[in-house]
């Protein structure tokens, strides 16, 4: 289920603070910046005079915006627009910080936010609609949105008003199944192709001492994220934790009969010891700990990072082979992978109503969609984190041979921070080991990826209903699922559905169906 962050902002406070704010972009005088930029030899110039803009930007992945991030310093030289971050480095709760800023009514010139916040507060006057600005002053961005209607849809409201430029991911494959191939060989087992075969393999893993230490310490299935881990198993019984659309009909997984069947089987596997007994408590280091201790047998996780363990542990565990495999066919005989990368993420950056120069700002946004800007946003600084080889940006040893994860090194330049730009999967491909790349290719060649549930746009009324209903539904699902798996209570899906109905789950489906229908109609235009 797509996570919805609930903010504490008071609409009445914001509306009052923004009263009288015009939604119309404030055009710069064409006699200065516009004409000079057009005639300049610098194709990236966004403002004739040096312009400083304050930016509210920060996420858990990349941290808060730093004024000295090299790619933004370089971009300032090229565009004549300098960004100054407004968030202190100590910020941990970005949702709360956003709430405080919005409630104050005094907004930085550029704001990073979730799509739902842009759509809500944009219509209240907090942000500027970007359509005309893009059409007149952002040719690269305009072309990109024309070529990618799904991204344009994610960035706009139901009336077609574009409120922000999203972070756009690249690459299809996200997660896959990894299994100890060396354990399979030692026990004389074949790679499991069905749910029953997987059950037999996990049973052998936990009972037949494949690590050879004469202890019954092996863990069958494990995961570093409890919810995502359990969700990966669900698909084996054709169940899903979230919304899916099949032949135009939206379904909510927990309400479907298959969900109850999946829970019964997962609870049984847990009882048999085939699933990590500490899956609800071990935490984010589970993969590190269990693989390093030579006790973990199977997981469903990101290709690139999971594949790296083969290199990390090869010298510590003789014969260690933790390798990707195709998903076992589900109970209906279908081989499928439910995870798939979102293209347009549900966050990005937009222009606040008080921005002193919207034209220069949209030109600045446009810079990141030029070839040079996109390269910097993905790979960092030429000569430092990458060099050009045969027309391609190739990472230097600083990135590839660091003790840190490559993406963390790249982020020290400001690249791969979550602002409005289009990723280039080649950045990740370079530090993905051949083994993981082979796994990705295997999944792509077999066309196992399910269609992604799209990012939907809700009306203000629908959003208010979701915010009222969803927290109660989610809490009940998470708590009940854990009780079932741990054996604290028997699986009773009929009673479970009845309670979900009382909490309003069916109404959530209706809201999603209406939004999905609007999305499909928009894609056909």
UniProtKB/TrEMBL annotation:
| Hydrolase listed as a keyword | no
Write out the entry's keywords from A to Z.
Answer: Cell membrane, Lipoprotein, Membrane, Palmitate, Signal
Task: Check the record and name the Pfam families matching this protein.
Answer: SBP_bac_1
Q: InterPro entries, alphabetically? A: Bact_solute-bd_prot1 (IPR050490), SBP (IPR006059)
SUPFAM superfamilies associated with the record: Periplasmic binding protein-like II
**Quick one: signal sequence residues?**
1-19
Keyword rRNA-binding applies: no
**PANTHER family linked to this entry:** ARABINOSE-BINDING PROTEIN-RELATED, POLYGALACTURONAN_RHAMNOGALACTURONAN-BINDING PROTEIN YTCQ
Protein name in the entry:
Extracellular solute-binding protein
Natural source organism = Paenibacillus residui
Output the lineage of the source organism. Bacteria, Bacillati, Bacillota, Bacilli, Bacillales
